[in-house]
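for ur thesis appendix - Multiple sugar transport system substrate-binding protein. copy paste whatever u need, i formatted it the way the template wanted (i think)
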Amino acid sequence: MKRTWKSFSVLLVVMLVTALMAACSDSSGGSSKVSVGIVLPTKDEPRWVQDEQRFKDALSDSKYTTEILFSQGSSAKEKENVETLLNKGIEVLIITPHDGAAAASAVEAAKKEGVTVISYDRLITNTDAVDYYVTFDSVAVGAAQGQYLIDNSEGKDVPLYLYAGAASDNNAFLFFEGAWSVLQPKIADGTFKIANSSEAEKLKDKAELTRDELGKILGQVTTNWDPNEAKNKAQTHLTAASADLKGDVAVLAPNDGTARSIADVFGTDGDITSFLVTGQDAEKASIQYVIDGNQSMTVFKDVRTLVKDAMGIAVEILDGKTPETTGSYDNGNKEVKAKQTDVIVVDQENVKKELIDSEYYEASEFTGL
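the 3d part is after this line
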């Protein structure tokens, strides 16, 4: 009887030690579990590298953890990244899709695991597996770009060169839609004449374009968000342009990276007397271009606010709360609840106020201020 009790006692101690070790293991494993998974499209654009640090900072004082992965312009890598994060037990996925439609399968896998999906800055389309969309008002961005060209152009028959982002990015359509909404009346009344798109020329009398019509124009003037592609297109267009399509011109460039490339091309053409060129993102290099007069404007989207909004929604979800939204967007399958952030036009007149005084950048990072 004593031997049996002693054996039982030893077994009980072993079981307790095993349970204690398992608890310790669970505790340490719990600390490595990721609360919020973030997938960004590429490390090759300054914007997304800056976002990486801002996301890290946003959760630095939180009990929640995050891991950030980059897709490097590949939808296959993007899906692989989502699977990696799902294996780490994420509860919220924040994702900026490389291709809005192709990302659907990746987020559908996340939804099957009960993960809340936040589409960040670019909308994932044609799926019901998106819960929230955190965005700048993309139509307003394009409208601001178009209005700047209107406000700063003089005379009639001003040659208008149109460029757009990637046709795989839903935002590119929204930016162009916004720009067209304000430029079209001025194209129709002869203030501007389209210089580089036969599809846009065909539709110049139409105020509202269908998705298919927008797609046809984008097919001709897309830069794919690639500065080199923008440079090559601009060179091709200027080589083909007749004398009446040069002189003082206006250029709708979709973002800062493409704007600088296009500005470099237009700036070296001896038959271009002056040019206005738009941009967006307030990239450091483009702010210097604005100061130097090589880029006319940029649309400042304060990413600090966008990151804060995205992380705010994520934390509210993790805390079991219902996030507040300010609107919705049709992604082709559902109306996705959205949190929108305002945008600001920046040019030489207000660059110091908006970007230096607001501590977005430091004055020491620029010359000529």
